[in-house]
């Protein structure tokens, strides 16, 4: 399988006149995808509020309950490339609807569980597979099919849906667990997942060509090309072909470091590290939630910049700035929330997943129509990096008594990721050009 840069031919003729204005259906597809992504993020984050209630009721060790979360995290990453291939073969609508049904099944079945392996099966396997099918590879598929103009901005908005999902669901679920028990929270997740299914089936379209339209900002209608072979074979074949290229390893290595320095280290160990320095856990958790708020702003802004600035330069800047912030973090911990820590939270939050829009753009630039599947594998590397860092930082804390070495190592790795990003070279070929669109005898001007 050979990869070529995605190049679209210029329009044969300029649009003669504009006869009508209407909202391009790509925006409706993006809105439905955003709802699904918000839900997926909230569903995946739910086990964090069930940890202590399950321990109190069943007496299971926290390590056993955490194993379900670990399985969930790994499947969330490893499912992504196969889900992207399944979307190419069977359609976005079927895969996302099936994923929501898996989440509803996994969450709903937990109310009757009696042993710990059932928790691992339900929250680890079923919910992990379901949310993994609506991970960032889903974002790459939607934006790759429906957008040429403003693709980076839409990628940023959809990626920010992940942070929004946690901000929306976690406080609600925490209140439900406190007032009505963990079973009510699990049932609410199941019902919420089922409620999104009709919306997906009704409004989530597959390709703009199915409506006789080009993608938003494209010059012509491009009929979808049916993929050859099975979805699993395509996912593995795409990996085998991509692994023979230098850009894949540079992107995968950088994104593995991204996962290690966000979900794996800060997301998992920031609260206990702050508590080691005398800060109350509730205060530290509030700071981490504030990171999520600024994450939304930073990711949307990164998407806007991706449409205007070389993605290699953006990634280099993001990783370098993240590395610098992590290197100074050990000196910022204190028993109270000092202004310097607030500056870190704002700065780090803006950078949290700002790396996603330029990484998606580079996958599509280097691997063309296979870019979504390739990004799925790059995202799998992200989750592997997160898992390794989560365990490694815990070992550092156990052996040395504090997290300082972990923070310094993460900062150094981030600066290394900046260098990896700058080593990427622009592939040969012209960049896609957005032009006015003529469909049949009518000229359409799409408003935003």
TrEMBL record:
InterPro entries: MFS (IPR011701), MFS_dom (IPR020846), MFS_trans_sf (IPR036259), Proton-linked_MCT (IPR050327). PROSITE patterns: MFS (PS50850). Keywords: Membrane, Transmembrane, Transmembrane helix. GO terms for molecular function: transmembrane transporter activity. SUPFAM superfamilies: MFS general substrate transporter (SSF103473). The keyword Transmembrane helix applies. GO terms for cellular component: plasma membrane. It is found in: Cell membrane. Its main location: membrane. It is a multi-pass membrane protein. Residues 28-429 form the Major facilitator superfamily (MFS) profile domain. The chain crosses the membrane at residues 26-46, 58-79, 91-111, 117-140, 152-176, 182-204, 248-271, 283-305, 317-335, 341-362, 374-393, 405-424. It comes from the Bacteria. This is Sugar phosphate permease. It comes from Micromonospora viridifaciens.
């Amino acid at each position: 399988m050979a990869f070529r840069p995605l190049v679209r031919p210029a329009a044969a003729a300029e649009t003669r006149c504009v006869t009508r204005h209407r909202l391009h259906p790509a925006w409706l597809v993006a809105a439905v995808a955003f709802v699904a992504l918000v839900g997926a993020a909230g569903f995946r984050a739910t086990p964090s509020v069930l940890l202590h209630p399950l321990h109190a009721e069943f007496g299971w060790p926290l390590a056993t309950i955490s194993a379900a979360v670990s399985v969930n995290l790994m499947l969330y990453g490893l499912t992504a490339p196969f889900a992207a291939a399944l979307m190419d073969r069977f359609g976005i609508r079927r895969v996302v609807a099936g994923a929501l049904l898996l989440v509803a099944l996994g969450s709903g079945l937990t109310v009757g569980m009696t042993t710990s392996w059932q928790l691992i099966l339900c929250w680890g396997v079923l919910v992990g597979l379901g949310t993994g099918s609506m991970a960032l590879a889903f974002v790459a598929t939607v934006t790759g099919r429906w957008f040429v103009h403003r693709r980076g901005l839409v990628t940023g908005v959809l990626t920010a849906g992940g942070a929004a999902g946690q901000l929306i669901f976690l406080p609600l679920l925490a209140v439900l667990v406190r007032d009505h028990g963990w079973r009510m929270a699990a049932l609410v997740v199941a019902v919420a997942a089922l409620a999104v299914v009709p919306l997906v089936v009704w409004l989530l379209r597959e390709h703009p060509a199915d409506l006789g339209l080009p993608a938003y900002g494209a010059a012509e209608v491009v009929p979808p090309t049916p993929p050859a072979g099975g979805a699993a074979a395509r996912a593995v074949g795409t990996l085998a072909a991509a692994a023979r290229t230098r850009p894949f390893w540079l992107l995968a290595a950088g994104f593995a470091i991204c996962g290690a320095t966000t979900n794996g280290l800060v997301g998992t160990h920031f609260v206990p590290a702050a508590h080691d320095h005398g800060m109350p856990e509730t205060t530290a958790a509030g700071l981490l939630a504030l990171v999520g708020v600024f994450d939304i702003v930073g990711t949307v802004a990164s998407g806007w910049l991706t449409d205007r600035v070389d993605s290699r330069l953006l990634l280099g800047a993001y990783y370098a700035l993240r590395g610098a912030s992590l290197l100074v973090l050990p000196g910022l911990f204190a028993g109270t929330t000092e202004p310097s820590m607030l500056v870190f939270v704002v700065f780090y939050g803006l950078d949290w997943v700002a790396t996603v829009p330029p990484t998606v753009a580079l996958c599509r630039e280097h691997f063309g129509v296979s870019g979504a599947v390739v990004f799925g594998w790059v995202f799998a590397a992200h989750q592997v990096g997160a898992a390794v860092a989560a365990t490694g930082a815990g070992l550092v804390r156990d052996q040395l008594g504090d997290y300082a070495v972990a923070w310094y190592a993460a900062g150094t790795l981030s600066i290394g990721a900046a260098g990896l990003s700058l080593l990427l070279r622009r592939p040969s070929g012209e960049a896609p050009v957005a032009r006015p669109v003529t469909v049949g005898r009518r000229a359409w001007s799409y408003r935003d």
